[in-house]
Amino acid sequence: MEKPLMPSYQRQPIAFVRGEGPYLWDEGGRRYLDALGGVAVCGLGHAHPAIAAALAEQAARLIHTSNIFRIPLQEHLGARLTALAGMDNAFFCNSGAEANEAAIKIARLHGHACGIEVPRIVVMEGSFHGRTLATLSATGNRKIQLGFEPLVEGFLRVPYGDLPALAGLAGRTDIAAVLLEPIQGESGVNVPPAGYLRAVRELCDRQGWLMMLDEVQTGMCRTGRWFGFQHEQATPDVMSLAKSLGNGMPIGACLARGRAAELIRPGSHGSTFGGNLLACRAALAVIETMKRDDIAAHADSVGRFLMDRLRADLAAVPGVRDLRGRGLMIGIELERPCGELVGEALAAGLLINVTAERVVRLLPPLILTQEQAATVADTLVPIIRAFAGAAA
Fold this sequence. Notes:
Elements: E1 16-20, E2 23-26, E3 31-34, H1 37-40, H2 49-61, H3 72-85, E4 89-93, H4 96-113, E5 120-124, H5 133-138, H6 142-145, E6 155-158, H7 163-167, E7 175-180, H8 196-207, E8 210-214, E9 238-241, E10 252-256, H9 277-292, H10 295-314, E11 320-326, E12 329-334, H11 340-347, E13 350-351, E14 353-355, E15 359-362, H12 370-391
Parallel strand pairs: 3-13, 5-6, 5-7, 7-8, 8-9
Antiparallel strand pairs: 1-2, 2-3, 4-10, 9-10, 11-12, 12-15, 14-15
Helix pairs in contact: 2-9, 3-9, 10-12
């Protein structure tokens, strides 16, 4: 059946036909508990009535007019997001990669405005920013870069979480910005040391660099705050969003403040579909629902419960190297590659993900209840124990 499709994915041999909350049903009617959430996209779960109603009503009225004209829903969404994040303005696009492309362009404009002939952006080892040529060049994963050379130039790389390494670049006069994730997702849910983001903020202020945060995975309540930077109140100059912003409806956003908010001018950037009425209506419904139901606090509470359960159940299991995360963004690092656990969990009715070869990543819908979180642990722990025991 996939012959007409380019083989760009290694898909699981299953298709889902219906969803409700944190559950999905396959073609045979079997129910699965989704602990992956469309890879951190479906923060409000599947088929949320408020999102479905907003989409249906807007689709019946008007979907797209283009950015040649005013889009009041886009203006309203920009106002809501900037107020939540403490930013000044927003550019809307269709994905996280596109949001990061906008951030990279802002950084280069900033560098040229500062008189830097060839502006450089500092990025992190182990980072992931997308699969366009510029964003995969910024990404710290050689595997996804292979075959796409020549890469886009202008990036300097330092270890993630290593403030002395970043500060060691302070003598350079060609740096325009620093781009990083509050928590690295694709490379294994890597949480930086406490105070790191605030220290990066202070360093950028001293050096005149833009601090740019990729909140594509951490944003929209995933970590127990609206945005990951709010755990340390390290407000960036530029921030990218996507994933949970539309709860499955493709939309991305690049937010900026201060001097960074003044750099994009008419003709310097654009998007045909970005910020159309349907996408903005979905995102507004997401924000309204998350605010009404205090989803950030809920994700923080259920995330703590799930982390505590996993720590207690896996503490003595040989082969489990680390358990880390924040809110409902959790990684369980094992001592050896564990990709086979995806299929084993699927057979047990649980959807998970393995990233960086040996990290079980959990990104469930943020509406997950404590009881459902307990089911995630009850299902996953025996699978990990059996896997670790087989290696002993």
